[in-house]
Please model this.
Amino acid sequence: MKPRDRVAAALDHLTPDRCPFQATFTPEFAARLRSDLRQDAGGTYNPHGGGNSYELELALGEDLLLTSVGWANSYYQDGDTYVDEWGVGWRAVPYATRFGPGHYTEPSVHPLADRAALSAYRPPDPGRAELYVDSAAAIRDFGEDYWIVGVTVTTIFEAAWALRGLERLLMDFIEDPDLAEEILEIPYRYHLAAAEQLVRLGVDTIWLGDDIGQQAGLLMSPRHWRRFLKPRMAHMVATLKALNHRLTIAYHTDGCVYAIIPELIEIGIDILNPVQPVAMDPAKLKREYGGELCFWGSIDEQHTLPFGSPDDVRREVRERIATLGAGGGLILGPTHHLQLDTPLENFWAMTEEVTGRTRAGGSG
Amino acid sequence: MAALDELREAVIDGQLAVAVEQTKRGLEEGIPAQTLFDDGLMAAMRRVGELFEEGEVFVPEMLVASRAMTAALEVLKPELVAEGASTSGRVAIGTVMGDLHDIGKNLVAMMLRGNGFEIDDLGTDVYPERFVQAIRDGAEVVAMSALLTTTMTNMRAVVEAIGEAGLREGVAVVIGGAPITQTFAEEVGADGYARDASSAVRMVEQVLGRVRATNGP
Model:
C-alpha cells in the first residue's frame, strides 16, 4: 500500500496493510538519527515540520509528512536568546544526557504581560505568500504518495499564553474574561487564516493543538474550556471542513482530557493526539470513542522510550496496535518529539515493530 | 466569627480585595493573627487543595485563591511576628537546572505557603549550588520540580551536591513533576515524591517530621 492509502484506510476505520507511522524529533535526536543513517546533515530539523526536507521521514518509512505555518515555528531558532515575529522573547536552555548535550528553546518574555501593551500590539500577517512556499512544495512533491498534514499547533491557548504568560492568562479567565477573549483571538485569527490557506493548497489533515491537560485532569475547568476555547475550535473546524469536506482534523493536547472528549467529537475533531498512556488508558479510549475518533501517537515518551528496553518498546507497540489499532483508527508514534535521552535501539525497536522495515545503513 | 467565615470564603473564591478587608476586620475585632492565619487562610487553602483533588476547581481557581491568600498574609505578617508565631518549616523550592517549567512548582509553593510553610522560591533553571546555598540559609526542606525526562536526572546532581556539602542529614529532599515516579525518587536518593500540589503538603509534613525526629530538636 502507498503510505497515503494506508493512512486513508486507517482514518476510514479500515484495517490497512500495516499500522501507519509518524514520529517527530528534537533537533539533537534528529541529528543523531541522521548520523546513524549516514545521511548528509540537512538544515536544523524542525520538530513541528516547518522547512524540513523529509529525507529523514522517508528513510524511516513514515506515512505522514508535516508542514507547519504559525507560531510553533518560533521554536528552535538560532541564538541564546531571540525575539520572534510575535514579539515573544525566547531563551535557549541547555541540558545534558548520556547521549550528549542538547538544548530546548523556551518562551521567556511575554509581550502582553502588561495589558496596556495590547492596544498597540500588531500580530504578524498570515497572508504573506512566502509562508506557504514550503507547504506548496511538500504537497507538489510528495502529495501523491504521502499523507500531508498542515500543522497549525499552538493554535489558540498556547500561543496566547506565550503572549500573555501562562499564569496571567489563566487568572484572566476568572478576573478579566474580556481581556482573555481579546488575547485568545489574536493567535486564533492568525492560525485560522493559515489553516484555511493550507487547506486551499491541498493538505489532507489540519493538525490543531493546545495543551489543556495535566497528568491527571484538565488544567482549566470544562466550563472555562467551553467558554474560551471550544467555540473558537468549533468555528475553525467547521470553516476548514467547508473548504474541503474530505479534510480531517487532528487535535493535540497533552495529558488527561477525558472530560471533554465527547465535545471534541461533537465539534468535528477526527483524530486525537498524542494519547499519553500514563495519562489516559488507550484501551478505554478505544472502547468508548474508537467508533468516532482516530488516535495518533500512544507510545510512551515519559518512561518506555527513554528508560525501557527495546523489548519493552516492542511489547508496547504490539499492544497499541492490538487495542487502539484494532479495525484501523490508529497512526502510531511517540507521544512527544523523540528526546535525546532515548536510546537509538529503542527508537529502532519502535519503527521496526510498526513498519516491518529493518534499520538501514546503521552500525548495528 | 463572621470575619473568619468570610475570610475563608474570600480566599477560596480568589477575591483578593475582600480577603484583605476581612483580615483587617478580623484584627480590628481582636481575633489573634495566628487564629486568622490557622482558621482563615490555612483552612481556606486546605479546602482549595481538597477541591482541586476532587476535580471541583482547577489551576486558574488555585492561582487566584493563592494570590488572595498571599495578599491577606501580607496584612497578617507584622502581627504574626509580634505574636511570636512560628512557621511549619522552611522550604527551598525550585525547578531544576535546564528546565523553565514552573507552574507545577508554583502550585506546590502556594499550597505549602497556605499551610504555614515559609517558602524560599529559587525560581527555574536552578543549579545544584543554589539549592545547597538555600540549605545554608536555613531551609529544612529542598523541593525540586522537573517536567522533562532530560532534566529530571539533574535532581540526582542536587542530592549529590547536598551530600558533598555535608548537609544531607539535616534536610529533607522531596521531588515532583510529570515524569517523576516513586521509584525514580528512591533511585536519586530523595526522601519523598508527590504526584500533585495537595499531596505534596502532606508528604512534606511527614518527611519533615522524620528528619526532625532523626536530628533531634
